[in-house]
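Give me the 3D structure for Dihydroorotate dehydrogenase (quinone).
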Amino acid sequence: MYSIIKRVFFLFDPEKIHYITFKLIKNTLAIPGVKSLWKKLYVVEDKRLERELFGLKFKNPVGLAAGFDKNGKLFNELEYTGFGFIEVGTVTPLPQEGNPKKRLFRLVEDEAIINRMGFNNDGIEALVEKLKNRKSDLLIGGNIGKNKVTPNENAIDDYVKCFDALYKYVDYFVVNVSSPNTPNLRALQDKEPLTALLNTLKVLNDSKEIQRPILLKIAPDLTDDQLDDIIEIIDTTKIDGVIATNTTIDRSGLKTNDVESIGAGGLSGKPLTKRSTEVVRYLHTNSKGSFPIIGVGGIHSAEDAMEKFEAGASLVQIYSGFIYEGPSLVRKINEAILKS
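Predicted structure for Dihydroorotate dehydrogenase (quinone) (340 residues):
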């Protein structure tokens, strides 16, 4: 069924159909009986799927990565597609339009996506208002970033603003310094500025009555030396874990013709499968499993997810695989876990 729906959806501009899909999901689930039907189709409920990490209990280890529901418009409905947790954002203190369109591209032959959205979002205040209407008990993470106009030397201020505003409304935080679509953002992954940023957020978090887990999302394009720095930074700052990985700027090995004509942007989907798993394995092995890792990147099948778990991931997230394979992918991964 989804293969037919996908063919129709793929006739339209990717960004336009993304928001049309939101309306379709909302309207469909508003029909009496549909929520129960979707639950039977997509949701796997089994105590053996539960995971406890950084003080949180996840219904299952399959999550939706940031970027899909960045403004928090669909998290209540997405519970019925079987996810164990959902990440909203990336959000910035002020609303911003992001980069000029066209900025989202399908590479169908590669089962991939290139985006240069540029943290387009409605701003932190709008997201908070959406989260105040949270009906689901699904765990929600808040992925936070900085505004494009904020210079790197003032970036910490933006992350602090987002942290303070979201603190009451999310279950964990993700610090995004790895998107390739905001100028100079990835420079914040360097050892000195990243340590300063994470230490500031850790001190702020420790001052709260209840501490929220803080995770760092990293790029797949880091060298082994840079990954060693990440391990050291996690040990120094005592944050709670890593999400590996964000999108890549690498274009090697693609089947799609003339991909360079698309221009800049982060590549996600199947071409990222191997590299993201390599990063998960490197971090897990060289840290001796000292912190949890959420594996994300190129998960298009249950086998892809199981490889992430085997490499050392405690949880996984999907995004491009959700677009190409549909919500049945979540069920297939959870069923594979139960069989393993």
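Residues 2-339 form a domain with the TIM Barrel fold (CATH 3.20.20.70). Let me know if you want a second pass.
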